[in-house]
Design a protein that fits this description.
The complex is a heterodimer of chains A (about 375) and B (about 290). With about 375 residues, chain A is mainly alpha-helical. Helix content of chain A is about 70%, strand content about 0%. In chain A, a hairpin with a 2-residue loop joins β1 (about 145) and β2 (about 150). Chain B folds into two domains: about 1-140, no CATH class; about 150-280. In chain B, β7 (about 115-120) and β8 (about 125-130) form a beta hairpin. The chains are: A mainly alpha (about 375), B alpha+beta (about 290).
């Protein structure tokens, strides 16, 4: 069962991600909206997982099979993430812990919590936010980062610490987004909505609590940002470290989580529950096209803009990463990003929705 | 003498009704059965406790086509000049009465001829012909019989409509899960509805299983004949058994819901403690890892 709000949000996350990456990797410029794509992506992974589980249940798939598929999918995404690191970021960055490895682990964890009371994933999500600053302090986060890049030693302890706390997208606190996404979906989309033969229509839950929770998180984050200088040293230096994505500070996590929840609740109310919005509206069709291939687009957009840098540098007899962040001016890199999305849209529309292409199809073929 | 509608000649109902002329003194009443406390208007019949329903007169325009209200239209036709009318007129009147009754009928008309009284009966329309002095008592008997038939028919319709819901809830009678919790309120509502329906059915039992009255009167005999012809007692038994099945399903569901909810609260607390312990372990392991790294 597809929801237009989810497709729209995923498309927004894709656009943010593509423009941020093109700008950063080709021109060394961080666009102002950087840092909003990954939280949205992670939240939607939890949300989509819930929708997928309910879709499977509605088709009569038993719980054991759902668990097996979930585990296979989790490992698949994790392994693709590792392969992606090796092939795109070259072997020395194998264990930089990118967003794909995070989502792979999130799928494994969500499979464990999906049948537990909502209070359990909510507690885990809250604890994840709380323990993250402590773990970063214990690990001495800055010692793992050189010139703004994660650069661990290739030994078991550093790799594990990177996976848990100091990598690009470590489990703590990023797992919070997937868990909150799952809990949100379980509240907003009751299971009865997926039973087509339901003889009685149940009233849909109000989205106001989700809006309220999002607003509270956002306000708390803004307050923490504003009052940080007046906080006790232990809080101001360890728990609230300003708006930073690397490391993901408490303000950043709460703020982006709040914004994502508000965006989802608003779109769900305005689009999914609005009978006047036609399903075949042009924007929704485009969003559905992009959303259906988000996994593929994530990998493909890296390949098309990062590989040419490596290949051209090798061709010119220079160090592989010589052109990284200095290949072209910002205007050119952002134009390329726009062209990439336009060409992609054309190709995906031309291929049609039924063509089994992309990483998503491989995942279904291998795991389902 | 009791005859069925199949024995009568086929007639053009619409044409008959258009041409129908009933003798002087014919009364046409629209009647609604309402709770005694809510009854307003002319009370035609009071059905005593435990039913406590009044039959009140309403205007013909108020009659609704749906099953929301228990309503019946009744046509009381007096014998023309006692029994002095011609045989042809008498036959015409009977045919006109039948065509009037059958106009909106969805099932065959019951035709009862009994001690000089002619009754054409469907669930929504009843017409009878009798001596003017007996019209009132016959009408009372027919109204009472109509109410019990209508009420039982409505419960039967509910029971038939409930089968899909009961089948849908059947898995919850055996196992309850986190996902089923969303259905808790729905199951609760259905269980409450079932209990209300059972209460309603039990309230009409007194009439359905009432023994024959001795010495018999015309009114009591009409009531008994209608009960037999509509198989009220048999249908009541079948209905009761059907509701028993629903009751078993929903009792088991209620038990599962209760067990699950109680266990769930205890489990949630345990899980929160487990999460806290895992975090403690995480800190210890992390401490170990950082010391290995250094």
């Amino acid at each position: 069962m597809r929801f237009s709000s989810v497709d729209l949000l995923r498309t927004v996350a894709l656009f943010v991600m593509v423009f941020v990456h093109f700008g950063e990797n080709l021109s060394g410029y961080t666009v102002p909206f950087a840092g909003f794509g990954a939280p949205l992506f992670s939240l939607l992974s939890g949300l989509s997982y819930y929708l997928w589980v309910n879709g499977q249940r509605a088709r009569g798939v038993d719980e054991e099979t759902i668990s097996k598929i979930s585990v296979r999918r989790g490992f698949f995404v994790f392994c693709v993430g590792i392969a992606f690191n090796i092939l795109v970021w070259l072997p020395e960055d194998t264990f930089n812990w990118d967003v794909l490895t995070l989502i792979g682990v999130a799928l494994l964890l969500l499979n464990q919590v999906r049948r537990l009371p909502r209070i359990v994933p909510t507690t885990v999500a809250a604890m994840s936010i709380l323990v993250s600053p402590v773990l970063r302090h214990l690990a001495d986060y800055n010692s793992y980062w050189q010139n703004g890049y994660f650069d661990p030693d290739l030994n078991l302890s550093d790799v594990t610490i990177g996976f848990l706390s100091t990598g690009y997208f470590p489990i703590f606190p990023w797992i919070t987004f997937s868990l909150v996404g799952f809990v949100t979906a379980s509240y907003v989309f009751p299971s009865s909505q997926f039973r087509s033969k339901d003889s009685e229509t149940t009233a849909l839950p109000s989205v106001t609590p989700i809006l309220g929770a999002g607003a509270l998180l956002l306000i708390f984050s803004l307050l923490a940002l504003v009052t940080r200088s007046q906080m006790p040293a232990a809080l101001g230096e360890r728990f609230f470290t300003g708006w930073t994505m690397f490391p993901p500070s408490t303000e950043y996590v709460l703020g982006t989580l709040g914004m994502a929840l508000i965006a989802f609740a608003t779109l769900h109310m305005l689009v999914d529950r609005n009978p006047r919005v036609p399903n075949d509206a042009a924007v929704l069709t485009i969003a559905k096209t992009f959303s259906r291939y988000s996994f593929t687009i994530y990998i493909l957009h890296h390949i098309v803009h990062v590989w040419p840098l490596w290949i051209y540098a090798v061709y010119r007899g220079q160090e592989t990463t010589y052109y990284w962040k200095q290949a072209m001016p910002l205007a050119a890199s952002l134009t390329l990003a726009a062209c990439f999305m336009a060409v992609l849209l054309f190709l995906l529309r031309w291929a049609g929705p039924d063509r089994r292409i992309g990483v998503e199809s491989w995942m279904r073929w291998l795991c389902d | 003498m009791i005859t069925s509608t199949e024995n009568l000649p086929k007639i053009d109902i619409e044409a008959r009704e258009r041409a129908a002329t009933f003798p002087d003194g014919t009364q046409r009443l629209a009647v609604r059965f309402v709770d005694r406390v809510a009854s307003q208007g002319t009370v035609l019949l009071e059905i005593p406790a435990p039913v406590q329903i009044n039959a009140i007169e309403i205007s013909a325009e108020e009659i609704s086509a749906d099953d929301e209200h228990l309503e019946v239209e009744i046509l009381a036709v007096p014998e023309a000049n006692g029994k002095n009318g011609s045989a042809a007129d008498h036959a015409d009147t009977l045919q006109a009465m039948q065509s009037w009754v059958e106009k909106h009928a969805t099932q065959p008309t019951l035709v009862i001829t009994f001690q000089g009284v002619h009754i054409f009966w469907t669930t929504r329309r009843v017409a009878f012909l009798g001596h003017p002095s007996r019209l009132n008592s016959i009408r009372q008997a027919l109204l009472e019989a109509s109410y019990f038939e209508l009420e039982q028919r409505r419960i039967e319709q509910w029971a038939y409509a409930t089968w899909p819901n009961a089948e849908q809830d059947l898995p919850s009678a055996f196992e309850f899960s986190e996902a089923s919790l969303e259905d808790k309120q729905q199951i609760q509502k259905r269980f409450e509805a079932l209990l209300r329906i059972r209460a309603r059915l039990s309230r009409i039992s007194l009439h359905v299983y009432a023994p024959h009255i001795y010495p018999p009167t015309l009114a009591s005999q009409i009531g008994e004949r209608l009960r037999e012809r509509t198989q009220l007692a048999h249908r009541h038994e079948v209905l009761w058994e059907q509701l028993e099945v629903y009751n078993e399903i929903y009792e088991m569901c209620a038990q599962r819901v209760s067990d699950y909810t109680l266990t769930r609260s205890a489990n949630a607390l345990e899980w929160v403690i487990i999460v806290l312990l895992l975090i403690q372990i995480l800190f210890s392991a992390f401490d170990l890892l950082t010391s290995m790294g250094s």
